[in-house]
Design goal:
Residues 21-61 form the Co-chaperone DjlA N-terminal domain. This is TciA/TerB-like protein. InterPro entries: DjlA_N, TerB-like. With 66 residues, this protein is mainly alpha-helical. The chain has three helices and no strands. The protein has helices spanning 3-17, 23-37, 45-58. Helix 2 (23-37) runs antiparallel to helix 3 (45-58). The longest helix is centred in the first third of the chain and has 15 residues, at 3-17. The chain is globular. The N and C termini lie far apart (29 Å).
C-alpha cells in the first residue's frame, strides 16, 4: 500500500473520529459515506469494508444506515 495513501487514510479516520461523540453528526457522516458508496447503484464488497470501518470508528452499526 502506498505510504501517502496510508497517511491519508489515517488522517481521514482521525477526522471522522472527531465527530463520534455527537450522535447526530456521526450518523450524518456515516449516511453520507453510504450515499457515496451507493451512488453507482450498489455497494461493492471493498466499499462495505470501508463503511464498516467508518461505522466502527463512530460507534455505530452500519446495518442501521443501509
Amino acid at each position: 500500500m502506498d505510504t501517502n495513501f496510508k497517511i491519508g487514510r489515517r488522517a481521514a479516520l482521525r477526522e471522522i473520529e472527531d465527530v463520534k461523540h455527537d450522535t447526530r453528526e456521526a450518523e450524518d457522516v456515516l449516511d453520507v459515506a453510504v450515499a457515496i458508496a451507493e451512488a453507482d447503484g450498489e455497494i461493492e464488497p471493498e466499499e462495505r469494508k470501508v463503511l464498516e470501518e467508518i461505522a466502527g470508528v463512530l460507534g455505530l452499526r452500519l446495518e442501521n444506515h443501509l
